[in-house]
Amino acid sequence: MAKIRPFRNRSQRALGALLIETPCPACGHQLAFPFYDGGRQPLTTLAWPRSAAEAQSMEALPLDFIRCVSCGHVFNQAFDYAKVPYSDKPNLMFNKGALWREHLEATAGELSRGLPARPTVVEIGCGDGHLLRTLAKANPNGRFVGFDPNGAIETGDGLVEAQYKLFEPAVHLLEYRPDLIMIRHVLEHLTQPLAFLQALSFAAAWHGLKPRLFVEVPCIDRVFATHRTADFFYEHNSHFTRASLATLLSRGGAAVDRIETPYDGEVLTALVQLGREHRDANAPMTASGADSVAIARDSIAFYNHTRHSDAVLRARIDDLAQTGSRVAVWGGTGKAAAFINRYGLDATRFPLVVDSDASKVGTFVPGAGQEILRPDALLRDPVEAILIATQWRARDIAREIEAAGIPYHRLLLEHEGRLIDYHRDAHPYRDDAARAQNADKTVIRLTTRPQA
User: Fold this and answer.
1) How far does CA 397 lie from the centroid of its chain?
2) Which residues are CB-neighbours of 179 under 8 A, at least 6 positions away?
3) How confident is the model at residue 45 (pLDDT cuts 50, 70, 90)?
4) Spatial separation of the C-alpha atoms in residues 382 and 406, rounded to whole Å
């Protein structure tokens, strides 16, 4: 595992000290460059600690992210699948914001329009099965099967068949003969997503099946422009760009119909055909030598920028703590927990953490140890500032705060290594529609100053 010191230009250190020889999970290319050193952090989405002591004693795992110089895929070269208890605990992915619901409804409508009268739909890693249940309600004559080993599947009184096991392409494709396979927010967790896609495509061709495949993963294209780092936590081994997902699907043997970036560009969705011969001349494959060098240089620039901005942001957070202002952090697991741990928002200086997900309330932030409270705690005991710890959900969280009438003086967000005002400063996460509608009240102002 390569560990490097900051460097200012490509000639400062020998190429051999930078180049990493390891297979890319998305395309199989063997060369990568350093991208982001996140130190060591505990699990953030599969932890579920039930006390501060348990949260603070969790094992810290290495975040050593590198970038493939061929397809641009980012992945953690120190990832160990055995450290992640997927079969024991559900993944704490949560988003019930209005914009996310719109995204899910649009996805369900689009997928329903392509189904036959009596469809069979299989979802791999279905979680609680929300999208699967939505499709089942819209297609009452179909069969809907969810695979997930953690046992958190909600069947909707029989709408969904729950299979508490891993999906095996060689076995289950023939058994269920699905018209549609869905795999949402799963590929980023796998050690070898390319191998899984190739097995799925080959099994479909072997059995003479041609199911459609719907894929959804987080998108990190915005990371390169904003230099944000909270996206990188242990459970997500792989981080997809539009190019690396297209390459993965093409090399996985799928005929790609379309790839889109909904939810304000924060997710990637793809609809592909399995078991069909394809020759896509436009599919990105191996980058040219010049392109590979450009990717490597961009990786070095990101590495150096984040080392500097991390220190700057820690200093700004220290300044925030020293003002004596009461601050609530919005978000307690996943990317929010990665943010809290990365930038030192400890339980002593930042004891107040709230989260929209009721199932997280009463658990504790992995690593840092704050008890996670309901957002209505901020109605009973207002704070001066609310810090949104997850940029990708910023618009939905801002809307939720406004709808609940939660008072505050400042709504803060990290952007480019700075703490900025969500409503007043320039950033790519602003809710312009809500801002126009509420032009005369960009914040709900406190009538009295909260007690420090």
Assistant:
1) 16
2) 115, 116, 119, 120, 121, 211, 212
3) confident
4) 8
160 φψ region: left (φ > 0), alpha (ψ -120 to 50), beta (else): beta
Tokens 């039930």 belong to residue: 50
As given in the structure block, the two tokens for residue 298 are 């961009």
Nearest-angstrom CA–CA distance, 400 and 414: 19
Q: What is the pLDDT of residue 451?
A: 35
Nearest to 310 by CA among 276, 339, 269, 285: 339
Higher local confidence (pLDDT), 373 or 282? 373
Kindly give the pairing relationship between strand 143-147 and strand 120-124: parallel
Q: Give the end-to-end CA distance of the chain in Å, rounded to a whole number.
A: 46
Question: 193-206 and 242-251 helices cross at what angle (nearest 10)?
Answer: 40
Task: Answer for the pair 119, 139: CB distance below 8 angstroms, yes or no.
Answer: yes
d(CA 214, CA 250): 14
Report d(CA 142, CA 9) in Å as an integer.
Answer: 58
pTM for the model stands at: 0.84
| Mean pLDDT estimate for the chain | 87
Phi/psi for 190 (5° steps) reads -80, 150
In this predicted structure, what is the pLDDT of residue 98? 83
| Residues 6 or more apart in contact with residue 449 via CB below 8 angstroms | 384
Could you tell me the pLDDT band of residue 4, with boundaries at 50, 70 and 90?
A: very low
Segment 265-314, tens digit of pLDDT: 999 999 999 986 544 444 555 555 678 889 999 999 999 999 888 889 99
Q: What would the mean pLDDT of 183-195 be, rounded to a whole number? A: 95
